[in-house]
Design a protein that fits this description.
Distance between the termini: 19 Å
Structural class: mainly alpha
Strand content: under 5%
Shape: globular
Helix content: over 70%
Number of strands: 0
Order of helices and strands: HHHHHHHHHHHHHH
Largest sheet: none
Amino acid sequence: MKFYRLWVIAFFLKFAGSAWDASYHFKYLFEKYSIPHIVNFAGFAIGAFLLFQEWRKLKYMDGLSRNIATIGYVLFLIGIPLDFSYHIAYGIDLTTWSPTHFVYYIATAIMIAGVWRGYHLYTKGNKPGWKTYHTWFAMFLLECLVFPNMQQENGSISYDQYIHGKSIASQEILDLLSDPASQIFGGIAPWLYPLYSTAVVSLFTVFVIRYFRNSRIPLAAAALYIGLRFIGKLIFFEVGYPTSYVPITLLFIPLCYLLIKKIPWAAGLAGSILYFTALYGICQSGVLITPPAVLWEIIPVALIGAITPLILTLKHGQSDQESLQEQNAG
């Protein structure tokens, strides 16, 4: 099990480095060799070592899992010069939604999927449970999916600081802000945030339940993600780095799938409505500084939440419907 423990450490370093990097670029300009990049690379290097061992001799992974993880790794390597070239061509972009960043997200998701599949097969004698590394790998995949939204999560607090004259960004960053609201939020339409969040978290939740037959894993993964984000937020605050809004309301989506097992579309509908209603309420009350939310967005959010499990069950019919309804243990 040490092999997969090292993978958890590798992905955790990437997790920590990426979160640090998102905060870093709200304070300083782009640098190749910033400390967050080095932390991220440390995790990447551990992954390279582990994959190299499996290419020498398969021991802890099957061939397909190793190949999937390797494809993700190579794609990530390809993304590095692409991202540097993109920045050279277009300068600093205060956004996580650039094309080259999505190469990173896709590559990381593929890598996690390969390793997670290998772990699942390696432990196939045991029923997948939330107290195992399944929760960690699920959390890493969830983080990879929702990471693009950190632009608005960081931006919401950074913009509030800016308009109140309390920005902690460097002067180099402030000099670039010809259109502060647009640039701090990455030029992304505010309505995209809740729609994207609902879609990826719903897809993630339904996929995990279908594949592992355990509705506690996505809930535990979401709780772990939110907990680690809070810890990161406290650390960044203490050391004077930009902090972000932690997407606590996303927890409602996997929670509803756990509580409403017999009707997946109802679970998706309830989870998405609760998620957005809570986010909207927090936003309007001013209790926390959140990404902008407008009431009409609840309609597409609810539709996405309800339709997602139906789309994923169309192909395989009743068997998938039953897997989403199964009473899980563990």
